[in-house]
Please model this.
Amino acid sequence: MDLAAASAWLIADGSVTYGPVPIASGPPEAETPKGTTVVDWKSRYHHSREFGGVAMHYAVFFAPGGIAVHEGVIDHPSAGCVRLETEAASRFFDTLAVGDEVQVR
Model:
């Protein structure tokens, strides 16, 4: 994921298999963590405990504090997660497995 370009894509064996797709990420006060991590866990119909039950469908968790790639609006900043439109969120959820590498730059 490239936060500055507001884009994300899926890569397998060094080739882009999907994307780029537009994203929303966190603003400076709730910045999306950068670096290389792995998928920790997934939840298709997750709801945030931190933000009053807000839907985080197709959530793929990759950083401490409940940070995930998930479905959501992309026209304004997130609270630190990476939001994708529905089709992209579904594709990321279906493609990524626990232990897969996640890069955020």
The two ends are 6 Å apart (CA to CA).
